[in-house]
Each structure stands twice: as C-alpha cells, then as structure tokens.
UniProtKB/TrEMBL annotation:
Protein name as catalogued: 14 kDa zinc-binding protein
Motif Histidine triad motif: where in chain: 117-121
Residue ranges of domain HIT in the record: 23-133
Active site (catalytic residues): H119
Cited InterPro entries: Histidine_triad_CS (IPR019808), Histidine_triad_HIT (IPR001310), HIT-like (IPR011146), HIT-like_sf (IPR036265)
GO molecular function per UniProt: adenylylsulfatase activity
Gene name in the database record: ZBP14
Pfam families attached to this UniProt entry: HIT
Amino acid sequence: MSEETAAKEAAASGAASKGGPTIFDKIISKQIPATIIYEDDTSLAFRDINPQAPVHFLVIPKHVDGLTQLSKSEPRHEQLLGHLLFIAGKVAKQEGLDQGFRVVINDGAQGCQSVYHLHLHIMGGRQLTWPPG
Ligand code: TR5
C-alpha cells in the first residue's frame, strides 16, 4: 500500500496517523479552515494564524507527521523534503518576498515545536534579526 493510500484510508476511518492527529491534519482534510495559498498532492501552504512577520506562512507535507519520522524513513522521503523547500521558495516568490525571507523548522521540545506535524515556517516582509531566541 502506498503512503498516500494509507494516509487516505487512515483519514477516512478517523484513525490516528503515526504521531497522532494534530490540528494540521484537520486543516489538510478541510475540517478546520485556514487561508490556503498553495496546494498539491503532497504538500499544503497556508498562512500562520499568529504571524511573526508581515508574511508568515507554513508549508507542510500532507502524509508525513514528523521530521524525525521522515528522516528515519525511506529514501523517497528525501525527495519530499526537497519538494517542501522548493514549494517554500515558490510561494515566497508568489508572496512577493523579493528582498529575502527566512525558513525555519522547529523540531522537538528543545526546538520549541508546538504542533507535532512537520512544518516549514516562511517569514518575511520585514528586516529579521539573528540569532533567534
Ligand atoms: O511552534 P511550531 O513551530 O510548532 O509552530 C506551530 C505554528 O502553527 C505556530 O506558528 C502557530 O501560530 C501555527 N498555528 C497554530 C494553529 C494554526 C496555526 N496556523 C494556522 N492555522 C491554525 N489553526 C487553525 N489552529 C492552530 N492551533
């Protein structure tokens, strides 16, 4: 069974995915509204509900929950990771972030992750500072 078929069956049955369902699963299934600015078969981009910059959106995979799960998984996930970054750049351009932007992945407790479904933060539209807190 393909990853996508498994995810569809899990969603249809209401079963939890490996890491347990998160709010982002409900955004993917359109149970909860979000301002979606890009979508394809494997990824979704939507505006962050609590923006930290004039432009702040998230890019998520539809069928994989976590970076750790993903990086320990099959080599084809390398392609998915590349795709997410590619989409981050594509949507950043679509959003007019010509002067630059930041891509962040918070992973795990020390990474300050709050939603346990892999997501790339893309922030721009103002001068950002470094290092982050
Ligand atoms: O802290 P991490 O890196 O896990 O980032 C989680 C991000 O999800 C935060 O920047 C939140 O503001 C964002 N977030 C949380 C919710 C949410 C959202 N972005 C869009 N729509 C959201 N809905 C509908 N519900 C959330 N709980």
